[in-house]
Amino acid sequence: MSKVSVLVSSIKKAFINLAQYKNIIVTLKIYLLLISIFTFFRIILFATNFENIRKEDGSIEWANSILAFIMGIRFDIVVSGYILLLFFIALTFIELFNKNRKIFQYLLFYYLLISVTLAFILSAADIPYFKQFYSRININALQWIDSPFFIIKMIIQEPRYYLIAIPLIIVIIIFYKILKKIFLIFNKNSGSQPKVFLHLLFSALFLLLMLIGIRGRVEIKSPIRIGTAYFCNNSFLNQAGLNPVFTFITSYLDKINPHNKYLNLMNEESALKIVQEHFNIKRQEFDSPIARYIHVTQKVSAKPNIVIVIMENMSAAKMGRYGNKDQLTPNLDSLALKGLCFDNIYTAGIHTFNGVYSTLFSYPALASQHPMKASSMLRYNGIAYTLKEFGYQTIYFTTHDGQFDNIEGFLYHNSFDKVYTKSDYPEEKVLSTLGVPDDFLFDFVNLKLDDYHLKNKPFLSVIMTASDHGPYIIPDYFKPKPNDITKQIVEYADWSIGKFISDAKNKKWFDNTIFVFIADHGTAISPVYEMPLNYHHSPLIFYAPKIITESMAYSKIGGQIDVFPTIMGLLKFSYINNTLGIDLLKESRPFIYFSADDKVGVLNDSLFLIINGEGKESLYKYKNSDKQNYIEHFTGLAKKMKDYTKSNLQTAQYLIKKNKQFIKAKEISNSN
Fold it and tell me: Has domain 302-590 been given CATH number 3.40.190.10?
C-alpha cells in the first residue's frame, strides 16, 4: 500500500473517530449552544414585536420571518466565532501539549462563562431597547453610563423589564450547568489518541471554517455587515436577523474611529455655501458664517411670557388630530384648534437630550454625539441667551435628577437662571426615579411662575415632562379609561396638560403668555420603515388666546430646530439668528432632516429619504406607507435632499468644531 493510500485511509478513520478530537467536539457543542440561546432571545424579540410582521392585509409574513431567523443564525455564527476563537486555539494547545491542563481549563471555563454572560446580557437588554428605539442595541445605550444608579432605579421600577430579566437569569444558569458537563468531556479518557499530524490538520481545517464563519461571507469584496441583514421591505424583519452583540461592538468601533469623531459628510466650504444660499446670506457680517440679523419694524408694547412644554414621548400618532381613534388626547386636540398648529413637524433625534438641545438651541442632532456631555461645554445663542438680552427671566423645570444628561450644568452654562430638579420637590411627591408625576410638576410650575411674575419681568419657562416614559406611574386619583398602560399614561399626560392650562387661566400672567407644546421625540407606533416616522413626527402648537386671536393650521414641513426662530417671530423682536432654524410663520424649507444615531432621514411633502450608517439609501412615498424603494426613479430629487441635509449637518459640525455657534453680546449689540 502506497504512502498516499495510507494517508487517505488515516484521514477516513479520523473522520469516523471524530470523538478523539476533543477540542473540535467541545467547541462545536458550545457553538450550537450559543446559537440556540441567541435564537431563543430572537424568538422573544419576535414575540414582543409580533404586530410588525403582519402585512397590510393582516396576514403574517411567515416566509420572510423564516429568512430573518436564517439570517440571524449567520450573525450568531459570527459572534459565536469571535467568542470561541481564542478558546479553540487554547483548547487545541492544551490537547496537543497537555501542559498545565487543569489551570488552563479553569481559566478557559471562566473566560467563556464571563464573555458569554455579557453577550446574553446584551441580548436581553436589546429587547426593551428595540421596543423603545426601534433599533438594535448599540453603543448609545451607554450614554447614561455616568448615571448608573439612576438607570438601575429606573429599570427596577419598571415591571416590564422583569419579563426579560427572568429568562436571562434562567439562561445563564442553564448555560453554566451545560458548560460544566461539556468540559467533563475533556477530562475523560477516550482511548487512543489521534496522531499529532492529523490532529493539527483537522484543527487547522476547523479553524479555517471558524474564520470563514467569523467573516460571515465567502465573497472577497466585503465581510458581513449590518446592511447584509436587510433583505426585504419589512423594516422589523430586516433588523431581526442582526445579533445585538454584533451591532453593539460595531457601533463602538465606529464611535472610536477617529474619522467618525466629527461628521465628515462633505467639504465644509461647499456646505457653508449651500446653507448661506438657503438663508440668503450674500455677505458674512459676523464671526459665524450663518449668523443673520433678523430685523423687525413692527414692535410690541408688552413682552409676552413664553412657556415651552417639551412633552415626553408625545408622538403625533397618539393624538386624535392625526388619526388616533382611542381619544387619548382631548386637551391637546382642543389646544390645536384654538391656536397655531403645525402639522408636519419632526424631532431632530430619538433621545430626550436631542429634543431639549434642538428645541432650545436650534441645532440638529449630529449622529451619536451628545452635545450636553461634551468634555468642553459650549455656549449657544439659543432662546434663553437671546431672551435674557431682552430682560427675560429664564427657568427650566425637569422632574428628575439634574445630573442626568448633564442637563443642569449645561443649561446653567447656557443662560438659564434657575433649573428646578428632583431635589426641589417634596420627597413624598417623588414617585419614581423619574421624579414627580406630570400633574404635580405643572402645579409646581404654576406656583413658581406666580413668584417670577411678581418680579415685573417677563419670563421664559421650559418644562420637560416625564410621565410618558417607563417606569409608568399614574397617581391613584386619576382614573384612566383604557386597559393598556401605554395608553393610560398618554391619557394621564394629556389630562395633566389640560389641568395645567385650566389652572393657568386663573393666573395674572396668563393673558400675556404664549404656550408652546412640542414632543422631545415620538414613539415607534406601527413602524413601516427602518426609521419610524412616528418616532419623529411631533405636534407643534402655539396657544395664547389673548395674543394669537386667530387659529390656523399649517401644513409646511419643519422641525424642532425651527421652534426658537418661530417664537422670536411671534414676539416681533429683532435679533441675531445664529442657528439652522427658520421662522415657520415667514419662511419655508424645502426639506426637513433628522437623525436616529447612525441613520439620517430627510422629508419633503411626499418623499422620505433614509441614509443608514453604511451609506445605503432608500427613498419611499411615505404618505401611503409605500415600501417600494424609489431611489432609482427620483435620482435628481434624492441628490437634492441628500445635499441639503449633508450641508446643514456639516455646517452645524463646522460651527461647533470652530466654536462659532456662539456670538458674544458685544458683536450682537454692534449690529443693532
Answer: no
